[in-house]
Amino acid sequence: MKIDFHTHGKLAKRLPFSPAYTDWLFAEAEQSGLDGLCLTEHFNTWGFEEVYGYIRERYSQDGDCFRTQSGFRIFPGMEVDIEEGGHILVIGPYDAVLEMNRRLEPYKEKGHFLPLAQLEQMADGYPVLLGAGHPYREGGTIPKLEEGLLKRFDFLDLNGKDLALHREITIRQMEALSRRLRRPLAAGSDTHQSFQYGCVWNEFERDCTTVEELRREIADVSEDETGILRGRWRIHIAETVEFQVKTAGILKRALKEIHSLGGDYVSVLLKGAEI
Fold this sequence. Notes:
alpha/beta; two-stranded antiparallel ribbon
């Protein structure tokens, strides 16, 4: 099973939800060769519940994931900002993700984000996975936080955007953090736009339809000769990662500009896709 652990279903958090755009993204993700993705939408995006309500109505549920008509898997999740600076990936069953998101309502604006300790305490009441999102990105403090808090993570996000900017440095930093915390790496593209799918992905030996199956896969690890934790999955980094991320960024800016000028960026995009 080829799966991306960090994706978004909207072009930007401060734009209205577009069912057509989200459907297009999922179709493009499958076209890129993926079998599934974790939809880690920003927890404070406009219309968070609208996004997931649409997915639940539109797609059939299989275990904890939702499947498109062709069988592509969508695992619910969200990306949560913490007070210290940094982003936490939460992946779990639909009801758990939606309930956590509602409980986070008072903490969705800058200056009011929850500290990591309190977020972890909340998460302990739900069957969810926690991941450290792009730990070394500018503005984040995750690697500097108390070690006990960091060991609550189930995985560390080897992020496509960071790899595109500083591939060697990102790999070196993330492998060192994995050794220090004894937590595995899992790849996520961090895409809001289709061109970024397939820049990084995880290839599991087994198919998964539940969060517990994902948990077992990423927890079944052992150290290699360099001290890195390896499991029954491989992380792939495309040779084109830099080009894909750059191209996706350019298109994202162009589509947002169309929206800001009063145009329908979804209509423009989908007409282009039909040509």
